[in-house]
Design goal:
By secondary structure, the chain is an alpha+beta fold. It folds into three domains: about 60 residues, Arc Repressor Mutant, subunit A; about 90 residues, 2-Layer Sandwich (Alpha-Beta Plaits), CATH 3.30.70.980; about 70 residues, Alpha-Beta Plaits (2-Layer Sandwich). The chain contains nine helices and eight strands. It has a four-stranded antiparallel beta sheet with strand order 3-1-2-8. Strands 5-6-4-7 form a four-stranded antiparallel beta sheet. A hairpin with a 3-residue loop joins strand 5 and strand 6. Helix 2 packs antiparallel against helix 3 and helix 2 packs across helix 4. The chain starts with 7 loop residues before the first helix and ends with a helix.
């Protein structure tokens, strides 16, 4: 069960950007805001808000920040964010799927288009890449004094399809429809993920040489640097050579 998963091909690079705590908090606050505005400010009756709060705690966001974001989103002066996605190809023909939350659609479209053009990519039509990505439940857990052998069978029974163990993290992947049961099982086991959610996992990956991969990853960096961008998914195979060059 443990071993290399397709999710790791796109997660390693993202970790570098996620080290910028301010940007992480900005993305989480946006998710809390849209969840609270659409489903109300009570996490007991709003599953999306409950998950956003769980991710906020996993990122060590202060409780007062979480409460302030919920209160602001529930008020009359709440900012209204729209969810928009972009699909295209980067250098080397690597597929890219971008998820955004924005309060200014024109600004976001302009930035994303410019990023693709600047780095030798091109945008496609929505839906053109849907066949390349599967929606999966993905849980990231700090690997701290946790014996995966003790809980592996419980997680498999709950629906886990893959459990990948690295030096500092454990990544659990499951089918979209099993996300709730795996999340509940982790809660029952007293395990709080750093991050949990439905992600777009590539069902096939593509290799590039080191220089071409670096060129492509500059596009990913540019996209992730924008506050409107929540997630960037791609199907570049992150070889050991590429991963080592990023350290």
């Amino acid at each position: 069960m443990s071993g290399h998963s397709k999710w790791s091909t796109i997660k390693r690079k993202k970790g570098a950007a996620d080290a910028k705590r301010g940007k992480v908090f900005t993305k989480i606050i946006k998710e809390i805001s849209i969840a609270a505005r659409e489903g109300g400010g009570d996490p007991e009756t709003n599953p999306r808000l409950r998950l956003a709060i769980q991710n906020a705690k996993g990122a060590n966001m202060p409780k007062e920040n979480i409460e302030r974001a919920i209160k602001k989103a529930s008020g009359a002066d709440a900012e209204h964010y729209a969810e928009i996605t972009f699909e295209g190809y980067g250098p080397g023909g690597i597929a890219v799927f971008v998820e955004c939350l924005t309060d200014n659609n024109n600004r976001t479209v302009s930035y994303i288009r410019a990023a693709f053009n600047r780095h030798g990519g091109n945008l496609g039509t929505n839906g053109s890449l849907s066949f390349l990505f599967d929606r999966k439940g993905v849980f990231t857990i700090k690997n701290e004094d946790l014996n995966i052998d003790d809980i592996e069978l419980d997680l498999i029974d709950a629906g886990a399809e893959d459990i990948e163990v690295d030096d500092d993290r454990i990544t659990i992947t499951c089918a979209k429809e099993d996300f709730g049961s795996v999340n509940r099982k982790l809660n029952d086991l007293g395990i709080v993920p750093e991050e949990a959610g439905l992600k777009r996992v590539p069902n096939d990956t593509k290799k590039l040489d080191l220089e071409s991969a670096k060129k492509f990853l500059r596009l990913v960096d540019t996209l992730e640097d924008d506050d409107d961008v929540q997630n960037v998914y791609h199907n570049l195979e992150m070889t050991d050579e590429i991963a080592s060059s990023l350290e």
